[in-house]
Amino acid sequence: MAKHRILVASYTNSIHALQFDGDASLTAQPSIQVGHHPSWIEFHPQDPSLVFAAIEQTEGKIVAVKYDPSSGNGAIVGEIASGGADPCSLYATNDRLFVANYSSGSLSVLPISSQAPYLLDGPTTTVQLHGSGPNLERQTGPHAHQVLLLPSRGELLVADLGADVVCRFAQQDGIWKLQARIGFEPGSGPRHTAVYDGALYTLNELNSTLSKHRFPPLPAEPSLIAVKPTMANPPPAPTDMLAAELLIPAPNSSFPTAYAYVSNRNDPSPEGDIISIFAIEGVELELVAEVRTGLKHLRGMLFGGVDQRWLVAGGAQGGGVKVFERVDGGKGLKLVAENKEVEAPTGFLWV
């Protein structure tokens, strides 16, 4: 079977690497130290050997790493301030890197290039978000948790966990400016978003729910369709169980039906955290499966391979990294490989 290289973001000082052979092997490759908690990594769209890492620290930093395609070894080729504290999400275009700075509650837009020096000294934009929520431990101020660009709409979404909103930005005179905010239930904590077939899906971390809105382009306002718990038997609030990742891979010939895949963290079960699978092509959200992973604190996961057949997931507090195969048309997941030696994985890239 074809071999795949997987880069692993982490709550260590390194970006790790694994080789997956599509059968039962997931072996460690050379890692590279880049700084404190490179928790999110992102390709440059014109050069997949160029990777940007968010260094999640008070004086937030972005590091550029260039990988040698033949050896797989990486080298730091640039770094720059992220424009805020604890950057936790990145989105790269050909010439811009969008950054969600979690602790400072801000959005930064940095100039980049696929050519050296990669991280440019040109003008940057930083937008401070505003607001708070009722959760006194997690919502005393804004917390930008994800940036998602919608190129066909010319719109940028920023999930703000601290203020229970998703912010909608658009360009005006070349500058990204706030146009509208989508409100969510107080204390829900919007973490990640995805858009599919005219609908906005939002994963709410603090109350472990998945929301679905009809989502017309700006300036029209979205309308709520459905809200469902991310698990069949949610515990009573307050709870330490938290939703983390939301993925909706595009349908293809092998998997013609779209599903939403949600990771949940901190399940007390000895069988580890679950990945929940939702049917989304009807009006409602329908939970069709829960897959026990054996992972603890399942934060990041990502689809890859031909037809997005494989799902890699990691336990930041135990269980290492595992690769699952989509089965039953996407309604199920089957474990095919694991590596328990990777420490504190938080996110992934398929090479």
UniProtKB/TrEMBL annotation:
GO molecular function, one term: 6-phosphogluconolactonase activity
UniProt-listed InterPro entries: Cycloisomerase_2, Haem_d1_sf, Lactonase_7-beta_prop, WD40/YVTN_repeat-like_dom_sf
Coiled coil (residue ranges): none
A Pfam family assignment: Lactonase
Domain of life: Eukaryota
Sequence similarity: Belongs to the cycloisomerase 2 family.
Full protein name: Lactonase, 7-bladed beta-propeller-domain-containing protein
Species for this entry: Roridomyces roridus
Source organism phylogeny: Eukaryota, Fungi, Dikarya, Basidiomycota, Agaricomycotina
